Structure formats: structure tokens, C-alpha cells
Amino acid sequence: MDSLKPQCPSFATTSRAHLRPLGVTIDDSFLTETKNPQKRKLSQKQKMLMSCPFSIGGHLSPWPTYISDQTILHNRKPCSVDYRKRAGSRQQQPLGTTKPKYLEQLENYVHKELLLLDLGTDSAQELRLQPYREIFEFFIEDFKTYKPLLSSIKNAYEVMLAHQREKIRALEPLKAKLVTVNEDCNERILAMRAEEKHEISMLKKEKMNLLKLIDKKNEEKISLQSEVTKLRKNLAEEYLRYLSERDARKVLIADLNELRYQREDMSLAQSPGVWGEDPVKLTVALKMARQDLTRTQMELNTMKANFGDVVPRRDFEMQEKTLKDLQEQLDSLRDDYEEVRKEHEMLLQLHMSTLKERDQFYSELQEIQRTSTPRPDWSRCEGNAGQGSPRDYQVRGLDSSSLSPPADVVAGGRDRWQKLAEGKNSDQLVDVLLEEIGEGLLREKDFFPGLGYGESIPPFLRFDGVVENKKPTKKDVVNLLKDAWKERIAEEQKEKFPDFFFNFLEHRFGPGDAMAWAYTIFEYIKLFHSNEVMSQFYAVLMGKRKESVYIKQKETIAQLLKGMTNADSQNEGLLTMEQLSTVLKSTFPFKKDERIQELMEAGGWHPSSSSADLLNYRVLFMEDEEGQSLPFVQKLWEQYMDEKDEYLQELKQELGLELHDEVTLPKVREALMNIDPSLDKQTLKSYLSQAFQFPMTELPEEGEEKEAGIVIQLQTALEQLQMSDVRRMGPRDQEPAS
């Protein structure tokens, strides 16, 4: 260090030279380096850093404010003339400043030391401070004037770092204890879950045993009832037999008495003492006997006259019982006759309406046959040489299995075409072909062009450039849409549906792939109109239908399934057709009988089947792998849309206006209450809010509507209601709800 001093003056000297013009007195003895025999020797690294001059002109340069002829000004006022002259002269001088070599060497040293450290270990942060400690030591050793202050700063920081290390070491056992407690809690939670699971299984077993015991008791009850009925019947027969025996015994006793009297009379007549009686006495006795006979005969005739029509009490009770049974049978037959008469009238009305529909369909058929073009050869889609779809073959009595091998028109061949074409008309088959062709074109595309950032572009499609086609299957798209619906129903629906859809894709696939999936799913749901899940999601996404329609339909299906489950007391998954009809009528009390019958037929009931036939009701709510529902759920959706159309048509007829006419809020309120008196206040306000596109909180109260002057075109109001969840709340002839 002493050898370097002649070449490299310390900063203390430079600082003292700079500070003296400012009037600061510095003690030279304080700047003199003290000779400490125990002073540690500088390392080789320090000697290497000190081996060259660091400043211009033999002094440490105060870079970056260094200028070649810069000196520290004396105490001058900033606004004085001398100060301005000096400032002007300084501005004219060139700014040829460079970074000092000493600073560059220190920076290079720090950079090299940091590169040599292994920052991947746990102690990397501790080692990272070591180069900076060494640089700070250099400053302390070189700048003698500030050495005490810099040393105190360094010691303060070292003490604080040591304190923090001790604190971290003290917290290490707490961290380990926290991990142990966490593991213990997890084990206890798992144990409690296992115990609860075991308890639930035991309760389920106990429930099944109790159900079996109940079934057994019911069977015993039925057998005991049948035995009691049989014993009562036997008791009645025995009672009748004993009555007959009692009457026969009385008759026998009377006959025996009569025979005994006759024997006594014969013995008296044959006894020799009778011939010796007085004839006068016998004549008087004969006369008295004849008088008694006459009186008895008169009494007998009187009894016959008075009680000739009287029957025994036993016969009377038997006849009375028979009469009661016959009366009950008569009442039952009258009720059956009344039901049959009503059904007959309904069938007559249905027959008349069927005749009208038949005549109308026949006229339409004649018109269609007159104006329609020849039917397309749908069999070409599966390679068949004949004409007509597989359904046409079934109608003509032919077997679709006799078709020739499939061609390459539809992927999957003849079997897949038969599955796609089953139960569809020509219009629907055209949609199927368009979807098949569109799906093939979608799979050929590798990228989609971006639609830009126009206002007419949906928010989730605003993008410039090209996006990748992810090419998912229909099953993948359907499962993704179902997951989106589940998440949408679970949240509180604070954001709009398009924004929610894009946020869902970002959460599922990340921000990088969200736009590509948005374009891919949009193209799929725009193409597949025949798929229920895709078509309904597309309608809600594009604002053609409110999401409340889908949510309410799912709630209705869940309510119907719950009613069927409650009706299944044995929990076997089976219901009779009578139980199915009862559940449908209780769930949909305002549906007509013919629509209830349509639902039962869609569920598997036929008019020829018995009401006691069993139906597996859980199968009615199942879906295939592409999200397609069974005919029962599809019929529910069709009836909902038809009932909504009928409801809105009744509203239009009640208003008595054309579609292009304007209608006011009070008139729509009155019309809704007339066609549906059961509407409550909240539902009515919801319908009015949807029709006039006003928030429910801003709708005027009844009586203030004329002053508000809210007017809308009838066609617009009906279109808004068609998009919303609108349904009848009660029969039309009911009293208005309060």
C-alpha cells in the first residue's frame, strides 16, 4: 500500500485540497495513517486493484462531475456577476469527461466475483455480499478522512445482519414444528374422513336392512289380512249353519211334541174308561172344542192377514246387506260411466280436431306434391343404389340392412349415415350433410384469420393476424361447453356472458391459447345446429337467447327427476305409467292432457300398454357422448318453446295491435294480467323489464307509467320476450293474484 501511494494519491488528500477553498480546516494529523502492528495485510486482490493510477493529473477524479479545469468555487452568491461569468465560461468548455479507471476496475472486480459465485445454492445470498464487503474495505482503507464514519456504518450493518441471522436460526425450529403440525392435522383430517366414510357405509347398510325388514313386515301384514278375510268368511258360513241347525232343532222339537200329543190322544181313545163317559159331557166338550177351533182359526186368519208379508229378521238383514252392496256397485258404475262419457267427449273432440288436421295436412300434401321437386337420393350418401333415406325404407317395409356397401360421401360409412339419418326428414338431412361437409373443411384448416377490432366483432374474437385451429372432436367441444355452463351457474353472473366465456378459456388454457380456442369453438358451435349443447350455447353467446332460459330448463329437468325419485318409494329406479303420469301432472299442472300424453309416449308409453307396466325413469334423462338428449327431454324443450309461442301469441291478440305498432307500458301490463292472472308482482316486473329493456329498479310503479311515457314497438317487445324465460304461471280463468 505504501509503494502505491506515490503513484496513486489517496482520496483524503484530494478531498482536503478541494475542501480548503471552502474555508474548511482539516487536521493533517487526523488524516495521517496510524501505524498498527496488528493491522491485517491487504490481499493479493487489493494490491492488484491498487497497482495503477486512478485519476487524471494524479488525483482521484470526482467523476461524473469532473471537468479538466474544474475547481471548487469559493463562497459565491449564485446570482452575482462573477458567478454568471464563471458559469458562462464553464458552459463554453467541452464536456470531455470519462469514467475513472479505479471505478472501472472496482466494477470489473465486482462483476467477476459475482460470476464466480454459484447462485443456485442456499448460501448464494450470503456469498453475494462478500465482493461488496471487500470493495467497502477498500474505500475504508483508502479514504482515511471518512474511515471512522464508514467503519461505524459497516459495523452497524454487520450487527444488524448478524441479528437477522440469529433471528432466522431461531425461527427454523418453528418452521419444522409448523410442518410437523401441518402433517399431523392432515393425518387427523384423513382419519376423520375415513371414519365418516365407514360410518356412512354402515348407515347405508343399516338403511338397506331396515328397508328389507319393512318389506318383510308389509308382506306379513298382507298375508295376515288375507287370513283375517278368510276367517271372517268361514265365521259367516258357520254362523249361517248354526242358525239353520237351531231352526231345524226347533222344528224337530215341535214335531216330537205333536207326536207325543197324538200318542196320548190315541191312548185315551183306546182306553176302556172312555166308553163309559157321559155323552152329554162329551157333547159339551166337543162343542167347546169346536168353539176353540173356530176362535183359533179366526186368530190364525188374523195373524196371516196382519203378518202375511212379514219376513224373518235374518232374511231382512241378508237382503239389506245385498242391497247395500248393489248400491255401492251402482255408484261405482255411475262414476265409471261419467268418466267414460267425458273421455268419449274428449275423444270426439280429438277426433274432430284430428279430422280437421287430416284435411289440412291432406290439402298441404296435395299442394306440396303439386309444387315440390323430386326427393333427393339420400342413399347416395351411404353408397346405396335405391332412393330415399333409411326411414323411407322402414316406411315402405324394407330392411335397411340390405343396402349396398357405403361410399366415401360421409365419413364412417353406411352405419354412421344410418345413425345420423334415423328419424330425420329431408330438411334435417340437408343440415346433417352441411355439418358433415363443414366439419371436414374445419379439419382441413390449420389457421383462422383474425376478424380485427371492430365494434361489430364479438369481444372474444377481436384479434388481428392468424390463430391456430386446435382441431378438437365434437365430444371435446361438448364437454368443454358443459364445464363452462357449470362454472357459470356456480358463480354469481357478475360479468357478461361473452366476457365470462373468454375468461373461462384463459383460465383453462392460458392467455396464449385462449384466442385460438375461442375461434375454434366459435366455428364449431356456429356449424353444428343439430347439437343441442352447441346450438343453445351459440344462441346465448350471440345474444339471441338469455342464459336464464337454459338455467331454468335445467332446473325444471332436475325438479322433474326429483319428483320421480320421490315417487319411487322402493328406490329401484322403476315407476309405473300411472305414477309417471301423476308426477308429470304435479310438476306441470298447466299442461294440457294431450301434451302429458306426448311426454309419456316419448318416455316409452304406448296406448296399447297397461298402466301397471314399469319404466326405468333414470334412462329418460341420460345423454350420449355428444351431449344429445333422449326424446323425452327433447320433447320437454319442444313443448316449452311451443308454449312460449302460444303465450306470446295470446299477448299479441290481447293487445290487438300489429307488429309495427307502438305499445305503452301500462297496456302491456294490463294485457299480461288478463292472459295470466296468476302473475305475481315480481314476475310481472321481470317480464316488463325484459320487454322494454329497462332495469327493474328503474321501472315506474303502477299509476306512474303514463307520466313516464315508456313506448316501444310491439315487434321489438315480443322479440325480447322470445329471447327471455317466459312461461305461464296459472290458468287464464283464475282470479288475479294480489
Report on the architecture of this protein.
There is one protein chain. The protein has 738 residues and is mainly alpha-helical. Among the domains are: 314-372; 379-545, no CATH class; 546-621, Recoverin, domain 1 (Orthogonal Bundle), CATH 1.10.238; 649-738, no CATH class. The chain is 64% helix and 2% strand. It contains 24 helices and 6 strands. The chain has helices at 11-19, 28-31, 44-50, 81-92, 101-116, 124-142, 147-270, 279-307, 313-371, 390-395, 413-421, 426-444, 474-490, 497-509, 511-527, 532-541, 547-567, 577-587, 593-603, 631-655, 665-675, 681-692, 705-708, 714-723; strands spanning 447-449, 466-468, 574-576, 614-616, 662-664, 711-713. A two-stranded antiparallel sheet has the order 1-2. A two-stranded antiparallel sheet has the order 3-4. Strands 5-6 form a two-stranded antiparallel ribbon. Helix 5 packs antiparallel against helix 6, helix 19 (593-603) runs antiparallel to helix 20 (631-655) and helix 20 crosses helix 21. The longest helix has 124 residues, at 147-270. The radius of gyration is 55 Å and the shape is elongated. Residues 1-96 and 383-407 have low confidence and may be disordered.
